[in-house]
Amino acid sequence: MKAAWFFALMLTAGPAAAQVAPTAPLPRVALDTTAGRIVIEADTLHAPITAGNFLKYVDGKRLDGVVFYRAVKVADRFGFVQFGTNGDPKRALPPIRHEPTTQTGLHHTDGVISVARFAPGTATGDFTISVGDQSPALDADPAKPGDNAGYAAFGRVVEGMDAIVTILDAPVSPTATVRGSFKGEVPVTAVKVLTARRVVVQ
User: Fold this and answer.
1) In the record, which residues are listed under signal peptide (predicted)?
2) Which of 87, 68, 154, 152 is nearest to 125 (CA)?
3) Predicted structure pTM score
């Protein structure tokens, strides 16, 4: 009798015990810009260091007032835009350890955000957003010679890609540079990030 009761209990408890607790949603950040709102989902699960770094800039309000200072348009809806601290030492946090795509499993597909860098391990507060599929060109590739670590992808645009395309399509100066670099890639009128804030995920 006791055995029968125990068996019945296990049958009723089994499905409930097998249920897995729902995973918490990934954090999202709204960039309210002069070109419209852009919402970015930061993948703290697969790229905790790089996504966490981005969130530190957001939470410290270090991205308020920065601009999209670079637009690299290779073809229609294909290229990338770049924004961030742009070398401002008052805004920059210490460099972070590089998280290659071979480690995170993320790739530079349309709308993916990654952190700009020089050598691996130098990234701070400048970020690029891909327009079109930039994988595998921007991904890590151990088969390549030299610096083959790629860029560290850490999230994606979930709202506002139309604003990103607007930034990419805007006129660029043929002569302007950013500290001697990016000639032909500097927007004539820079789009400004008014505020960068976390948003509640419904």
Assistant:
1) 1-18
2) 87
3) 0.88
Whether 30 contacts 42, CB under 8 Å: no
Q: List pLDDT tens digits, range 12-41.
A: 344 444 455 568 899 999 999 999 999 999
Degrees, nearest 5: CA angle 23-28-32? 165
Compute φ and ψ for 15, nearest 5 degrees: -60, -40
Q: Which CATH class is domain 25-199?
A: mainly beta
Task: Provide DSSP, 155-169.
Answer: EEEEE-HHHHHHHHH
CA distance 41 to 159: 9
**Can you tell me whether residue 58 is helix, strand or coil?**
helix
Q: How far is CA 33 from the centre of its chain?
A: 16
User: From the DSSP assignment, how many helices (H) and strands (E) are in the chain?
Assistant: 4, 10
Cα 199 to chain centroid, rounded:
15
